Amino acid sequence: MRRFLPRSLQGQMLLAVALALLVAQGIGAGLAWRAQTERESNAIVHALAFRLIGGGILRNGNGRELRRPGGRKPRLARLISAEDSPLRKNDYRNEAMEQKLRALLSDQGRDVAELQVFERKLDGELMRRFLPPNVNMEDVRGVRRARKMRVVIAASRLEGDDTWQIARAMRAPRDPHFLRTLLMQTVLIYIVLMGAIAVILRRITKPLKALTARVEAFSANPTLEPDGRVEPQGPVDTRSLIAAHNAMEARIGALLNEKNVMLGAIGHDLKTPLAALRVRIESVEDEEERAKMAGTIEDLTRTLDDILSLARVGRPSDPVEPTELSALTASVIEEFEDMGEPIELGDTQRVVLPVRATWLRRAIRNLASNAIRYAGGACVTVAKENGHAVIRVADEGPGIPEDEISRMMEPFERGDPSRNRGTGGAGIGLTLARAIAEQHGGVLALRNRPDGGLVAEIRLPLS
After folding, report:
1. How confident is the model at residue 160 (pLDDT cuts 50, 70, 90)?
2. According to the UniProt entry, what is the EC number of this protein (predicted)?
3. Which partner for 284 in 265, 290, 376, 390 could form a disulfide, CB atoms 3.0-4.6 Å apart?
4. In CATH, what is the architecture of 319-461?
5. Half-sphere CA count of 169, side-chain side, radius 13 A
């Protein structure tokens, strides 16, 4: 059900207003219909009461017209007297009308012993009751129209009187255009109201959409130029939000720039004395001691490079370029093979993606180095799987305990608690590889192989 509902703010608001308007119109239509029915019922009751109370003024004892204007056809009587009630067994008595009519008659001082109100079509038998004497039915004015309408009959018998006074009132046909008028009114309200809401929502959602695109772009690349920021627009609340985001973006950019300057200074200040030390140890006569010192300096230099690279991964300087991942991976493996390392390139598929080749090369190199260091070798493959490009480094080593896999990707965490480069280094390689994968919108995943060993995968989306 949810997939058929609109996901945007504008769509959800328009749907909510449309449903609310539909419910309101439905309730309004019901109330209007009820009010119309109530007015019609009251009008009929008052007409019946008027005829029962004052109908005898212009009629003789049996309820017939005393005199009609010359030249006019006779018409059906509206009040007659009879010895019996016209009520039949299958007639449905309208108790609500009976109560209203009894109250009106009582207010006029007429004590009603019996009162019957019912409705049915004006059939031949009932019509003959209301015909003037010695008059042909076809000569009566309005008889054709009366045959098409329903008639409400009120039969009243007063206290101490056996004669029934029978009054009739025609129920006028209901407005045939009521539903059409209501429908046209609803459509007009929909057009006006929904149009106004759509315009207002567009003023809100359009700048929000632009702001969302800017946030996503800034999240992927914090080096974006300030010229691309969204100008405050729309209602005052939206303007305030955009202005606050622009201020935050400017502050973040300034902090990142300050960090880069600081890191450059740290790198320069640390690498210079390390280089001087490297030169000075050449004067050490003991070759074994000199080698140890050189190895320590090399460890410090590499650790410093890893730390600086991890700090800079959020603001890369090299551009994103279309790169063939199989060729990139093969070049990394060739470097290890040239050094005689036990690593091989397995099956690969051609995959071209826009990446930062220098950084992705470093991530592959880190995974391969870990496999060689801890497992003594690895096999690297490149494949397309489920909409992703997968660079997979598989080894046959001891693997990693399941409860420690997530910890191994944190900075300065490693399986070997020592900081010896020969057994594991500073523990930044996996952290840097994960950061590089996330920088490209992908993930780094580690899992143990069922038959032993570890699989490290860099999964990058193809689109």
Report:
1. confident
2. 2.7.13.3
3. 290
4. 2-Layer Sandwich (3.30)
5. 22
